[in-house]
Design a protein that fits this description.
Length: about 500
């Protein structure tokens, strides 16, 4: 085996079965992969009056080409949402929900961050749930437009400025936060402490059981010139990113409307990739207990999320997560059942991606789940920061470069110089991914090619390629949603519900 090789950039398939390397090239020239099967969605907007107005204005702008101020090849112009995706905008049919702005402003002045974020998330979630439960016309997905204040003060460790308008409400005593009391007002306030302080994750978690799909958008992202500082300069310098914002949001809209923007040309049939997701439920009081989930991706690009069981998966000594035999078996059986439902039968090969080595107990559970009917391979993938590769050029090594350490281990540069863009991903000398076959047997070259291809399945944005395969790229974000609050036992849901 040659120690150092370069993989060709994976191609993507778009409309009319045409290929391209860059998603933006393919979408511009050929349209989305499902363009001939796509049904125009019903769109809804929820937010304040000013926020909804800004969304509608922005949707009008992306009907036409968006050029932006950048001449960088990495930020090409956006041709327009109808041209690219065939999404027609019937503005008379867009559903709108008005958020109670008086309540919104009141909650933003809650000093206790748990109470503040819980009430803000509920304000949006309950309005969406009420619409969904009514006899109104169904909405495919909702654009949730939020102010910069909701974004800023709906994050972990956020603190509101001192003001006479601030409201002191909440429970300071940690024991009282968790245990029933004789006072009903305290019991009502306790609900907020069951959730983590993060508006985005709380809202997503509270809508999972209702299967309501959302795209959260900041007002200043789509209308940066409406928000100026004392010198008349936009508070966020997004002028160079106007076309990139259009590409990213339009692609997310299309995907969340049920369309498939592109699929992998190199994808192999009857193969699925499973990325393991772990997140501590309550690290402060019970560090060992964690939620486990898995992301499954098929050759069609479809992504599904399986919620596993909560258990003592985290080891404080090794700082690693591992399942026991039974829960590993249960998790993979869920994946196999869903694959059978969507594809018919079971996959010929399953690649399980994780950030740590697989232990004997959990691996035996995975093998019991397949019962010898299919091949299972365990792959450990993690960024490597102690091994670099340099060359005597202005730009670093090309994306797709791989160094093979041994038959079961390689270093893959998923970032690096991209000839099509005449630039590199990132500003620093890129670090590789360490890719190692930890369980089972397979050709390490094929494993690296698969990982490189999976860096191009991020439908939540529209970029040339990501630095992390999609099986692990959103693992932390999905874990955050699943542990944001008491979501309960939810069914297998598409990836779009979480991002």
């Amino acid at each position: 085996m040659n120690n150092l090789i370069h993989f060709a950039e994976p191609k993507l398939i778009f409309g009319y079965e045409q290929n391209a390397f860059d998603p933006r090239d393919g979408l511009t020239l050929f349209g989305a992969f499902t363009r001939e099967k796509f049904t125009n969605p019903s769109i809804g907007i929820i937010g304040s009056a000013s926020g909804r107005r800004r969304v509608l204005n922005w949707l009008h702008t992306i009907l036409q080409p968006v050029f932006g101020k950048s001449k960088d090849l990495a930020r090409p112009y956006f041709p327009g949402i109808e041209t690219v995706f065939g999404m027609t905008m019937n503005f008379n049919a867009i559903k709108e929900i008005q958020i109670d702005e008086k309540s919104l402003n009141e909650y933003l002045h809650y000093q206790d961050p748990h109470q503040r974020v819980h009430h803000l998330a509920n304000l949006y979630a309950k309005a969406l749930q009420e619409y969904d439960a009514g006899e109104e016309a169904p909405v495919t997905f909702w654009i949730v437009v939020i102010s910069d204040d909701v974004y800023r003060y709906g994050k972990p460790k956020s603190k509101i400025p001192k003001s006479d308008e601030n409201i002191t409400i909440g429970i300071k005593d940690k024991y009282t936060r968790r245990n029933k009391t004789l006072f009903e007002e305290f019991n009502v306030l306790q609900e907020a402490y069951k959730y983590k302080i993060n508006f985005h994750n709380q809202l997503k978690a509270k809508l999972l059981s209702d299967k309501i799909i959302t795209q959260i958008v900041r007002e200043s992202t789509i209308a940066p010139f409406d928000f100026l500082n004392s010198k008349g300069i936009p508070t966020r310098d997004l002028e160079k990113f106007e076309s990139a914002i259009a590409w990213n949001l339009a692609t997310a809209f299309y995907y969340k409307s049920g369309g498939t923007p592109w699929i992998l040309n190199a994808a192999r049939p009857k193969v699925c990739y499973l990325g393991l997701v772990y997140k501590q439920v309550d690290p402060e009081n019970d560090p060992r207990t964690a939620c486990c989930a898995a992301q499954m991706f098929l050759n069609t690009g479809d992504g599904l999320v399986f919620k596993g069981n909560v258990g003592p998966w985290y080891n404080e000594t090794t700082k690693e997560y591992h399942l026991n035999n039974k829960d590993a078996k249960d998790l993979l059986q869920k994946a196999l059942a869903t694959f059978d439902k969507k594809e018919g039968g079971i996959p010929e090969e399953i690649f399980i991606h994780g950030r740590t080595y697989f232990e004997n107990e959990e691996w035996s559970g995975f093998l019991e789940a397949v019962g010898g009917r299919t091949k299972v391979v365990g792959i450990r993938i993690r960024p490597e920061n102690v091994f670099k590769l340099y060359r005597e050029k202005i730009f670093p090594v090309p994306r797709g470069t791989a160094f093979f350490h041994k038959d079961t281990k390689a270093y893959l540069w998923s970032k690096g110089f991209v000839p099509r863009l005449q630039t590199q991903f990132g500003l620093e000398t890129p670090n590789p991914l360490s890719i190692e076959i930890n369980r089972g047997a397979h050709d390490i070259k094929q494993v690296c090619e698969d990982v490189l291809a999976l860096t191009k399945l991020n439908y939540n944005s529209c970029i040339y390629g990501d630095g992390i395969p999609v099986t692990l790229r959103f693992a932390n974000a999905i874990g955050e949603v699943l542990t944001a609050g008491p979501v309960g036992d939810i069914e297998v849901l598409p990836f779009k519900h979480y991002v």
